[in-house]
Design a protein that fits this description.
Radius of gyration of chain B: 19 Å
Structural class of chain B: alpha/beta
Largest sheet of chain B: 5 strands, parallel
Order of helices and strands of chain A: EHEEHEEEHHEEEHHHHHEEHHH
CATH class of the largest domain in chain B: Alpha Beta
Oligomer: heterodimer
Number of strands of chain B: 5
Number of strands of chain A: 11
CATH architecture of the largest domain in chain B: 3-Layer(aba) Sandwich
Number of domains of chain B: 2
Number of helices of chain A: 12
Order of helices and strands of chain B: EHHEEHEHHEHHHHHH
Bound molecules: iron/sulfur cluster
Radius of gyration of chain A: 22 Å
Distance between the termini of chain A: 26 Å
Largest interface: A-B, 37 and 37 residues
Helix content of chain A: 25-40%
CATH superfamily of the largest domain in chain B: NADH:ubiquinone oxidoreductase-like, 20kDa subunit
Strand order of the largest sheet of chain A: 1-9-8-7-6-2-3
Number of domains of chain A: 2
Chain lengths: 345, 261
């Protein structure tokens, strides 16, 4: 359990009316992206100002995570005509993400490492810069969550502008950045002197205990590297369908492919990017057709080794935030928690 | 190419419903637009004018189901520089290949009053007899993909058509997954249709055939674990792609495992 010192201590209490006011104030500066429930699913989408009452703070994980805001599943990067290139903008309006889960917040930080590091991605960086993040702490984890293993939830610790915890019919709001603090001041939401901080600490402890799925992360990269031939890999390769769904929904999977498309005049066209996945055959194919991951077992391993070993080598952190989406999604029932546990048996 | 300098295009029909050819006609306006780039030299369904080969690109629609069609598909191969399977019948046997599971005479008697006039063999995909240069999937094909292929041929580049699982496409479009309620073939079917059926709340019927590298045997086993009967699995997997590589093997493995138990 984390020491209470890690959460911001100043707490504001917003009732239904002032929470609505907060959202409307945000919407004046930002386009609001938030989880909404529609057509029997929960998705993250951009809301118009009159839809703000649809923001769902206690929703299960959105089908696609926040990465879709910074990099849509398919995007046009530039247009060309006979050697002339027309670059497209980086996206217009600044965005606020409201109600994202703590694990998804952590995932954004991991994506930052990837996209704004040595090979900086201009569009991604631009979109991240004009960003306001309102995280919604989880009181009740969902069946597949294992965020506590990576300290990415169920309560957020840092790198948010605002954190909101819906507790006993009120919204407890904390600022985690100068921008967040300034925003609350302008809004005129007073700091509470009541017992709310203590309530938050208790709620956090309770939520953490409710996350019962765990990954033992002790020496995990080493364990993986010593078990490249463990029978569990063939067992899951036998079940895995190579559909790639698990990587599509993963908040930290960042792989994409780039493709040029010609228009009918054969002179002009556009360059598009689309998310792709190491689970699919063509992903690792190189010129002249060789494919180092031709065998399914190599593709299955790539995903889990990337999350729990390679990402660590490169960035000193695990590449999984324990959101459970891949488990929800996999029709074959492949579960990293279970696979990693088997390695220790 | 002929004196016109435009690539000459031919469209052949074997055993099929003509739906894929119709898709070509649906984009004909656009086709003429490709800088009036192609010459439609042989397309009996669209035009009475039938110019003799050779052709630059030939599209074959339909499964090969008779000795006469075997000859025709071999001739098509000789006549065309590039030969393309047009749709799932040509690519994977399509709906016609469903008959292969039964004895020829039995199916013929079920359908025709005078089966003795028929001269029919097992329904095979084009590639069973001749080499193909490309495949357009779907029942029917997607007009966009047809255009991609023609554009690719015009500039001499291999078009990149989706050859990964439909689930990837379906998830990226944020459809609610139907698998828990229905037998959806999305996990093993090739993307490229925009996840049309799941988007409309219907499970994927597999009309685009198996994607490259997917686990057909594992999928058949999974369906069985979920409680589907072998006959149902066979019907679904075989609906549009009975003759696709791997389908028969996946079913054989299932039968074998069942008998072993
Ligand atoms: S690997 Fe699975 S649990 Fe981990 S972040 Fe990705 S989707 Fe979430
Ligand atoms: S797991 Fe696969 S798809 Fe995801 S980031 Fe790693 S290589 Fe890319
Ligand atoms: S979702 Fe499951 S079956 Fe599909 S690629 Fe991922 S692990 Fe394999
Ligand atoms: S509805 Fe079908 S195609 Fe879509 S994700 Fe589910 S199994 Fe895959």
């Amino acid at each position: 359990m984390s020491p209470p010192a890690q959460i911001a201590t100043a707490v504001r209490v917003a009732d239904e009316a002032s929470w609505g006011q907060l959202l409307r104030a945000l919407a004046q500066t930002y386009d609001i992206w938030a989880p909404v429930a529609e057509k029997n699913r929960v998705i993250l989408r951009c809301l118009s100002p009159d839809e703000l009452d649809q923001v769902k703070l206690d929703a299960p994980p959105t089908l696609l995570p926040a990465k879709k805001v910074y990099r849509a599943p398919e995007e046009t990067l530039l247009r060309f005509r006979k050697g002339e290139v027309e670059p497209l903008g980086n996206g217009q309006h600044p965005w606020a993400l409201v109600g994202i889960h703590p694990c998804d917040l952590r995932a954004i930080q991991l994506l930052d490492r990837v996209y704004t590091g040595f090979f900086a991605d201009e569009r991604y960086s631009h979109r991240r810069q004009q960003n306001f993040l309102v995280v919604a702490n989880c009181l009740q984890p969902f069946p597949h969550c294992f965020c506590t293993s990576f300290q990415s939830g169920p309560f957020a610790r840092k790198e948010y502008d605002l954190a909101v915890t819906p507790l006993f019919g009120r919204h407890l709001v904390q600022a985690g950045s100068a921008a967040g603090e300034a925003f609350l001041r302008v809004l005129g939401l007073p700091e509470t002197t009541g017992s709310e901080l203590a309530e938050l600490v208790a709620a956090q402890a309770q939520a953490e205990q409710a996350v019962t799925r765990k990954v033992n992360t002790d020496n995990l990269p080493r364990l993986l590297n010593m078990n490249v031939d463990h029978p569990v890999w063939d067992q899951i390769a036998d079940r895995c369908l190579s559909c790639g769904a698990c990587t599509a929904v993963c908040p930290t999977c960042y792989c994409f492919s780039v493709q040029d498309r010609l228009n009918l005049d054969l002179q002009s066209g556009e360059r598009r990017m689309a998310w792709t996945s190491c689970l699919i055959m063509e992903f690792s194919r190189v010129a002249l057709g060789h494919n180092p991951r031709h065998e399914r077992v190599a593709r299955v391993k790539q995903r889990l080794y990337h999350k729990f070993s390679y990402f660590n080598d490169q960035y000193g952190q695990f590449g999984c935030v324990g959101c459970g989406r891949c488990v929800d999604t996999c029709v074959a029932g492949i579960d990293p928690v279970e696979v990693l546990a088997q390695l220790r048996r | 190419m002929q004196e016109s300098g435009r690539p000459r295009l031919a469209v052949y029909k074997l055993s099929s419903c003509a739906g894929c050819q119709l898709q070509i006609l649906n984009v004909e306006d656009l086709l003429l637009d490709i800088a009036a780039a192609v010459e439609i030299a042989y397309f009996p369904m669209a035009s009475r004018q039938m110019d003799p080969g050779p052709y630059d690109i030939g599209f074959v629609e339909g499964a090969v189901t008779s000795p006469e069609e075997i000859q025709r598909v071999k001739q098509a191969r000789q006549q065309c520089r590039l030969l393309v399977a047009l749709g799932s019948c040509a690519a994977f046997g399509g709906v016609p290949a469903n008959k292969n599971r039964f004895a020829q005479r039995v199916v013929e008697q079920q359908v025709y009053q005078h089966p003795e006039v028929l001269n029919s063999v097992e329904a095979r995909p084009v590639e069973h007899y001749v080499r193909l240069d490309a495949t357009l999937r779907g029942c029917p094909i997607h007009p966009e993909e047809f255009l991609e292929l023609v554009k690719g041929a015009l500039i001499g580049a291999t078009p990149r058509l989706p050859n990964y699982s439909l689930c990837l496409e379906c998830r990226l479009r944020e459809n609610a997954c139907l698998f828990a309620q229905e037998l959806c073939l999305g996990p093993i079917t090739a993307a490229g249709c925009g996840a049309l059926c799941p988007r409309l709340g219907r499970s994927c019927q597999g009309c685009r055939g198996p994607a490259e590298g997917v686990n057909l045997a594992g999928f058949a086993r999974l369906l069985q674990e979920k409680g589907y009967e072998r006959a149902i699995i066979q019907n679904q997997l075989g609906k549009y792609a009975a003759a696709a590589p791997g389908v028969a093997l996946a079913m054989a493995a299932l039968r074998w495992e069942e008998e072993r138990r």
